[in-house]
Fold:
Amino acid sequence: MARVKRGTIKNKSRKNTLAQVKGYRFGRSTKKRQATEAIAHAGAHAFNHRKQKKSNFRRLWNVKINAEVRKHDLSYSKFMDMLNKKGIKLNRKMLADLAENNPESFKRVVDAAK
Structure:
């Protein structure tokens, strides 16, 4: 069997790996082994944070809704309960947007829930 020299392929692989970690600090940006490990960890964190982003935004929406609802002498939980009992189907994202950008429309929603 013929001998296979891998120099060009190995160099290409290393170049691609190091291109992915451009901007990383210390050995992670210059050494292939450390770079490969950094890529693996970055991918794991990216996956987890894509999941966490959803709960972070829901938390933010809850805070925005609560802040606006407090002006109408209600609490967040009581307001959401009123909405559910009245059958008003508005999700938290839309409610938070109304609370932040259209307080007068949000007031109408609160009055409808009461």
